[in-house]
Amino acid sequence: MNFTEKLGGLLPDGIDCFLVTSELNQRYLTGLNYTDGYVIVSREKSWLLADFRYIEVAKRYETDTLEVVQLENRKVNLGNIFADNKFSKVGFESNNMTVARLNGLKETFPLVDFVPVGGIIEKMREIKTPEEVENTVRAQRIAEKALDRLLTLITPEMTEIDVALELEYGMRKFGAEKPAFDTIAISGTATSMPHGVPRNVKLEKGFLTMDFGALYNGYCSDMTRTVVLGRADAEMRRMYDTVLKAQFAGLDYVAAGKTGASCDKVARDIIDNAGYKGCFGHSLGHGVGMFIHEEPRLSATFDKELPVGAIVTVEPGIYVEGKYGVRIEDMVYLAESGPVNLTNAKKELIELF
């Protein structure tokens, strides 16, 4: 069973079909990476609507249950499918669609009742198939190769932007479609900002935090490594070791069936009890898939059980404002047999220069 067929089986009662407008969800359902189109899913059949720019490629994705339609006129093409199949109640992605777009659909198709259906595809995306796991692993191996390459090239004369660009170049060189998100490469005092932006300044002595990932076949990887430029003093080592201890504890504890909140607490207690209470200001982790931040969450407010088949990050950090910070992040697959760490990059403290 493919994803469109699975979604068709999950349609709520009273809904004739589901109109998918999110480009990411369209790619998830059909495999085609394209823009400005539609996917319509019913219980018996699905339609992929793509314009002339993509139609040749789109035809390769056609199956017995997925019909490809060249999109020439939205009113005509969508209208014909609605009318021919007597679709009067059409579900839409209420988590993604703008009010303006919804109003436009209502004006174009006044006889159709558009019904909000939120989160149904996102819930599907939480549980990864073996192929999705493999794509994520491939993305992670690409990111690791890019990091290995960078560590042979980095010099004190480089800027934070240089470091980010070298990571991104390495990922593209080794097979990524593109970076999975905006690369973070920050040094010195800037490492106290969890999502700091790379600056056009020479690397500062102290910590260098790199948070980056590759996109492979539509799937993201996510990894953070912190190294030291120069030599680490006793307090820097203590902070790094505390984060690493918290991460190991989180990695040992996280598993399907445990709540996101309990996972967060295991790591957070170690950091708080080490004297850094209030310095770990984000959650322990999040789901990863076609989007870099997905459900489920490893946070103090996520009291739901983590499902078998999810991929999550475990990324504790300590940040002292105006001074520096450390974060270490791995990805974990929550298999039925137990958690599997998908990240191979080493985590012992590295001192450069």
UniProtKB/TrEMBL annotation:
PROSITE patterns for the chain: PROLINE_PEPTIDASE
Every Creatinase N-terminal domain range: 14-127
UniProt organism field: Candidatus Colimorpha enterica
Keywords noted in UniProt: Hydrolase, Metal-binding, Metalloprotease, Protease
InterPro entries: Creatin/AminoP/Spt16_N, Creatinase/aminopeptidase-like, Creatinase_N, Pept_M24, Peptidase_M24B, Peptidase_M24B_aminopep-P_CS
Superkingdom: Bacteria
Name of the protein this chain belongs to: Peptidase M24
Positions of transmembrane segments: none
One of the GO BP terms on file: proteolysis
GO molecular function: metal ion binding; metallopeptidase activity
Gene3D superfamilies per the UniProt record, alphabetical: Creatinase/methionine aminopeptidase superfamily, Creatinase/prolidase N-terminal domain
Residue span, Peptidase M24 domain: 138-334
Family matches, as PANTHER family: AMINOPEPTIDASE, AMINOPEPTIDASE YPDF
Record-stated family: Belongs to the peptidase M24B family.
